[in-house]
Amino acid sequence: MKDSLKPGETFPDIELPNHEGAVVRLSSIIRGFPTAVVFSRGYFCPKDRRQLLNYVAYLQPELIVNYCKLVIVSVDNPMLSTEVRDGIGSTFPFLCDSDRKIIQELDIVDTTGAVHGPVAIPYTFLLDHDLSIYKIYNGWWYVGRPTVEEIRMDFRALLSRRADWWYGKTPPPYAAGASHI
After folding, report:
1. pLDDT average, residue stretch 146-160
2. What is the model's pTM?
3. Highest CATH level, class, for 15-175
């Protein structure tokens, strides 16, 4: 992984085709809110399918109301990404790095599988509203991938930094040490 990919540093504002084939920038999806960017190995990986199914079942309904975002970056092409997305019932966007350009630029290429070619090491980056990296999960082992609850807690921590986090003027005493944007 590139040395610049660490907490506190800015994640690149990558530009890729989405599942519909339209080229989009990550910042246009984030639009100023915390975001989990999940790098997927592709349709063939049973670990990725399990992870995505958990996110669809338990996190997706909350994404609609909590302002946070979830983005999948897959090595699959837009047509296959659309099939996977529709097949699992996802409403969050898939970005397609089918030429493997971004995973190479970020130096997160897994070359151990000869059958499927180079794929992404399944990292998940939790980003703040300004693309700054809050946390990184290394999902080489399935248990290294963030659970729904871990993402929920990361989103809470990031949103609690906002000046408008508390309704009213005085936050509860336990939040006295919290920093606010």
Report:
1. 96
2. 0.91
3. alpha beta
Q: Give CA angle at 158 (67, 174), nearest 5°.
A: 115
**Cβ pair 120, 16 in contact under 8 A:** no
**Residue ranges of E strands in the chain:** 15-17, 23-25, 35-40, 69-74, 94-96, 109-110, 119-120, 123-127, 133-138
- How far apart, in whole angstroms, are the C-alpha atoms of residue 97 and residue 86? 18
Q: What is the pLDDT of residue 171?
A: 62
pLDDT exceeds 90 at position 127: yes
Beta strand residue intervals within 18-93, DSSP E: 23-25, 35-40, 69-74
Q: What is the structure's pLDDT at 13?
A: 98
Give the start-to-end residue ranges of the domains of the chain: 15-175
Rounded to a whole number of angstroms, the distance between the first and last alpha carbons of the chain is 29
